[in-house]
Amino acid sequence: MAAVRDLANGDLREAENRDAIALAKNHLVQPWPYAGDIGAEARTLVTSGDGIYLIDGDGKKLIDGPAGMWCINAGHRREELARAMYEQATELSYNTPWYTMNTPSAELSRRLAEHAPGDLNHVFYTTGGSSAVETALRFMQFYNNVRGRPEKKKILSRGGAYHGSTYLSGSMNGRPRDRDWMDAADDLVVKLSSPDPFRRPKGMTTEAFEDFLIDEFRDTVKRTGADRIGAFIGEPIQASGGVIVPTRGYLKRIREICRENEILFISDEVVTGFGRLGHVFASQDVFGIEPDMITFAKGVTSGYFPLGGVMISERLLRDLNRSNHPDAMFGHGLTYTSHPIGCAVALKNLDLLEGGILDHVHEVGPYFQAQLKMLEELPLVGEVRGAGLMGCVECVADRGSNDPLQLDKNVGKRIDQHCHELGLLVRPLINMCVMSPPLVITKEQVDDLVGILREGISRTMDDLRKEGVWQG
């Protein structure tokens, strides 16, 4: 009878999966679709998760290599986080932030201020990373308007950057494919070079490359005019740009130029925050900088509830308090700002991070980096880079080219397909495989992840050789 029930349950699940796929193709518009199949697309169906693993619609167990979208930091199926959601929802499910407040948001603000560098003692909560960046940029505009500097609004961003999908945050993005068919606030943005040492000009040392970037920054400020530049925004490590780790002194030198020219430094820690590099915030603890604002999201709730925010310097708020326009209103807010359920989950998530996960990242992170680095033995792999529990394997099919967009654009997808068959979900970015597993991953599970990735790359190399498009 048990076997019959299992068979029946299996048939039911299969039917439910088929229904979900059909419904998606008929009704669901997925993020980042192509025009040719927009509104008629079904992607890999995921039915459950546990720890570092996902189960797909076929029942296959997969290591969640990207941790969802850089966000499942505490792992899937954490009862503590689910219980925090339930308990807060049954106590207070929502309150309007326009004329009321709640206890979880106030308590979370205190704890975040304790972790934030310098005088970043205040928080404005949002619903995610895009809205956090949007808030930081709009605050910069408001700040300069109140201070009588309405022309100081230009924003410096960089090639390879990713800062969001709202109109203003998306305008900061520096990956060509992000904006080829999308409008942007180009009049407000000044783009700088990507700080990618691997793609530096041939024959240039990394030290000289850092000097080049700093000189470019100074020249851009001089050419544009410091009196017209309101902010610089940068990820400490460019995440979706391919886990670009800058040279050692780069961020400190950029920070100093910003300070000299009253340009607000916005550190976008939507990915690097909340344990990904072993700290709640990485700006000071890893890179030695004290920004004017820090944007965060993703790992703040380990992806269990949509929440983001902006840490804001005490100094900036004092400047506003002392201005000649005390009645000027920061006309910006969101229905779900300071959401009590999101803040309650974030508080419990902080408990988990402080209770051992951060220490675990310091232990397993170096092992993760060392094991990934060994993949550079493979002829298709150009570079492995990363920090903490974020890494990127960049494949180079044509070593004579310095432009990854000219390489086989399907290399990453090919590797992902092979890895899926072997039990690993990869995030393919053109010719790159990005890895950012849940922070609770063990060394043994790191071995499994890297072993599958190695085999996936090896099988892709075999495919390319058989097709005669690569002889490496």
Q: How would you describe this structure to a colleague?
A:
Helices cover 40% and strands 15% of the residues. β7, α9 and β8 form a beta-alpha-beta unit. The radius of gyration is 23 Å and the shape is globular. The relative contact order is 0.14. The strands form 3 sheets. Strands 4-10-9-8-7-5-6 form a 7-stranded mixed β-sheet, sandwiched between helices. Strands 1-2-3-13 form a 4-stranded mixed β-sheet. The protein has a 4-stranded antiparallel β-sheet with strand order 11-12-15-14, with helices on one face. The chain has 2 domains: 168 residues, Aspartate Aminotransferase, domain 1, CATH 3.90.1150.10; 274 residues, Type I PLP-dependent aspartate aminotransferase-like (Major domain) (Aspartate Aminotransferase, domain 2, 3-Layer(aba) Sandwich). α3 packs antiparallel against α11.
Give structural attributes.
472 residues, alpha/beta, Aspartate Aminotransferase, domain 1, Aspartate Aminotransferase, domain 2, 2 domains, seven-stranded mixed sheet, four-stranded mixed sheet, 40% helix, 15% strand
